[in-house]
């Protein structure tokens, strides 16, 4: 777990009306709704929701939450919208769920796939070919090839060792590089990726701030952003497009206890757990310099732990462990400004992560 100097973030880490949907609820481009899935560690379950594409109204799917493994910390939806995967941090394994194409409901497929000790985060390539898992206690990265027909996982070699206490990871859009965030070291470790095989990038880990808890890569693959919870800052690192090596460009003040970062176009969103708001920055495309937008930070309800951008780029979904809820905020894609909507739903127990169908 994070060092003692790191602020503790606990990651233990209804009936859906489908009338009017033109097709499967899991396809936002051809349907009135899309689906979202939320890990619920204390319930040993995954919650499922339908979200209206226009209004962001959030409705629990029939049968939600769906039982799974022990203390799921992270969840991800396959791009085919056929499968959902959950990393079970207490079970040391991964659950595979199939998605009902009509309802969006889940059914776990057994047996579960073994991981290293305490898997806490998942990442998947955009084609849905490989699943990457960070194992916090065994200090390793597991990689699995995904069967596109039935969703089953096959290990790609043995787990790759990484410095003690890895916490998060981010795959670049080109899928050439994988970055692993280490909370205790306050650093990022870089790997090259070739057909799921990881090779360390030359050089030492790149230092960021204290207590880093979240990492993301911009869509243009120029920069990596890290939220430093103990420093109340976000760090910006540049990416060498040939080698994947990182260079720290600078750090910028956020709200209190930032725990999540997300990018949409020229804007960076940083969720601040302690100050219950979201700092929004515009990004200079050539230098990576951040400038807070007008009226930032924006209110975000109670203690936002994580944030997910809507597949149609209209809303930002914010999860709160304290309020046990998911709330939608509107995004002004011209200015980056956020506004809290009336659309919110309880998750019954504290959520730790969320993944939305494309």
Describe what this molecule looks like in 3D.
The chain is mostly beta strands and 358 residues long. The chain has one domain (33-356): Methylamine Dehydrogenase, Chain H (7 Propeller). The chain has strands spanning 33-40, 45-52, 58-60, 66-67, 72-77, 83-88, 93-99, 106-114, 119-124, 130-135, 140-146, 153-155, 160-161, 166-171, 177-182, 187-194, 197-200, 206-207, 212-217, 223-228, 233-239, 246-253, 258-264, 267-272, 277-283, 290-292, 298-299, 304-309, 315-320, 325-331, 338-346, 353-356.
Topology at a glance:
Blueprint lengths: L32 E8 L4 E8 L5 E3 L5 E2 L4 E6 L5 E6 L4 E7 L6 E9 L4 E6 L5 E6 L4 E7 L6 E3 L4 E2 L4 E6 L5 E6 L4 E8 L2 E4 L5 E2 L4 E6 L5 E6 L4 E7 L6 E8 L4 E7 L2 E6 L4 E7 L6 E3 L5 E2 L4 E6 L5 E6 L4 E7 L6 E9 L6 E4 L2
Antiparallel strand pairs: 1-2, 1-32, 2-3, 2-4, 5-6, 6-7, 7-8, 9-10, 10-11, 11-12, 11-13, 14-15, 15-16, 16-17, 16-18, 19-20, 20-21, 21-22, 23-24, 24-25, 25-26, 25-27, 28-29, 29-30, 30-31
